[in-house]
Amino acid sequence: MLVCDHASRRIPNRLENLGLDELALRRHIACDIGAGEVTRRLSRMLDAPALLATYSRLVVDCNRHLDDPTAFLAVSDGEFVPGNHNISLEEKERRARAIFHPYHAGIDARLARFVESDVIPALIAIHSFTPIFNGASRPWQIGVLWDTDPRIPVPLMDRLGRIPGIVVGDNEPYSGKAPADYTIDHHAEPAGYPHVSIEIRQDLISSPEGADRWSRILGGVLAEILMDDDLYRLSDVGPST
């Protein structure tokens, strides 16, 4: 199963774009640029169900614990977000009821359908990252984020690393060991499902042509890995503490 926590820049009308202009909403602070399109393409290529969050992470970040301060950012990458400044607990709960909980309930329901059919699911999360952060260039085209379960991440990094010109990040530019990675930590690790989070540099997938190219690269490699019947068993290794 594929998931994309930051697929959309959409904001409910009642929030009036959180006080941001169109230029700000087209930045990565509102969504993972290109990640949604790659997820949709991979879903078709791998014949796998996909669930995409349909509202901006600025409304509520579906890849964070709700009590994490970054779940409702008042400042994101230097951009002040007026609609998130001093928001009440009631407003946070309203957004969580409308967006966060239905999204994760949807993931739970789809994973449960696999289990009811005696199938161990593999969970793959798709994200994108900026080519420059805090003034530093990021050399990786793609990053593989993981913690204690190497079944998908290690062969994925190995196969991608064999492709000329591709620089692969092992827990770069973010780490799968970080506690902020809610979706994988919540849905896959405790259950023992094979899983991985994948980050693609957004300038490579911001166009339809780029999204298509990287979907084909990633889809081809993942298809080989996912054909291994030994993958579909529960891991007895839990999340690190």
Description:
The chain has helices spanning 22-25, 35-46, 89-116, 153-161, 182-187, 208-226; strands spanning 2-4, 50-52, 75-76, 79-80, 123-129, 132-133, 136-137, 142-145, 168-170, 195-201. The chain is of the alpha/beta class and 241 residues long. The chain has a single domain, classed as Aminopeptidase (3-Layer(aba) Sandwich). The strands form three sheets. The chain has a six-stranded mixed sheet with strand order 2-1-5-10-8-9, with helices on both faces. The mean pLDDT is 95.
Q: What key attributes describe this structure?
A:
single chain, 241 residues, alpha/beta, Aminopeptidase, two-stranded antiparallel sheet, 6 helices, 10 strands, 32% helix, globular
Question: What are the segments in which pLDDT stays under 50 over at least 5 consecutive residues?
Answer: none
Report the total helices.
6
Please give the domain count: 1
What is the 3D shape?
A: globular
Structural category: alpha/beta
The average pLDDT score comes to 95
Query: CATH superfamily, called what?
Result: Zn-dependent exopeptidases
What is the class in the CATH system?
Alpha Beta
CATH fold call: Aminopeptidase
Q: How large is the share of residues in beta strands? A: 5-15%
Distance between the termini: 26 Å
Which range best describes the helical content: under 10%, 10-25%, 25-40%, 40-55%, 55-70% or over 70%?
25-40%
Strand order of the largest sheet: 2-1-5-10-8-9
What's the story with the biggest beta sheet? Answer: 6 strands, mixed
The succession of helices and strands, N to C, reads EHHEEEHEEEEHEHEH
Rg, alpha carbons:
17 Å
